[in-house]
Amino acid sequence: MSEMKPVGPSPGLPQRILIVDDDPEILRLVAYKLDNAGYDVLTASSGQQALDVIVRKGLPHLAIVDIMMPNMTGFEFCQKVQQFCDMPVILLSVIDEEDTKIKGLEHFAEDYITKPFSPRELVARVQRILRRVGDFAYTLSPITSSIFADLTIEFAAWRILG
């Protein structure tokens, strides 16, 4: 009989997932399920807060993003992130319209899940995407680049630091 491979992240090196949703119950539920599956979970209740998390903590291996959020939609958040990286995204939304799903999948996301959703299915989809895209080391540090000794760029915040 062949040995089964683990379905979650590698022991000792948990993959980082960022959950972006303005609904605290969804944040709690998804964070709980992904934490129990062995992932390092970061949460944000808005697109701007998610960008701040990326600046402070570095890129996650994957983001789960709600579309309908105040001040910055999930699509706007994805557009900003796409300006400096190719982070995999799962859109998680109450919007069940074909045009919105197609726009999300064609321009922003690896997957699209409508609410209400099965938390177990969400974890399975996260695992599938992460197996396919692999484990990228760029996620382990904040997104900055030193151009010269006294010049640094924070890509996620679009700031130049002197």
Key attributes of the depicted protein:
162 residues, alpha/beta, Rossmann fold, five-stranded parallel β-sheet, three-stranded antiparallel β-sheet, globular
3D architecture notes:
With 162 residues, the protein is α/β, with parallel strands linked by helices. It has one domain (16-161): Response regulator (Rossmann fold, 3-Layer(aba) Sandwich), CATH 3.40.50. Helices cover 36% and strands 22% of the residues. The strands form two sheets. A five-stranded parallel beta sheet has the order 2-1-3-4-5, with helices on both faces. A three-stranded antiparallel beta sheet has the order 6-7-8, with no helix packed on it. Helix 1 crosses helix 5 (119-133) and helix 2 packs parallel to helix 3 (74-82). The radius of gyration is 16 Å and the shape is globular.
Strand order of the largest sheet: 2-1-3-4-5
Q: Helical segment tally?
A: 5
Q: Any idea what the CATH architecture is?
A: 3-Layer(aba) Sandwich
Helix content: 25-40%
Would you tell me the structural class of the helices and strands?
Answer: alpha/beta
Structure summary:
By secondary structure, this protein is of the alpha/beta class. The chain is built from five helices and eight strands.
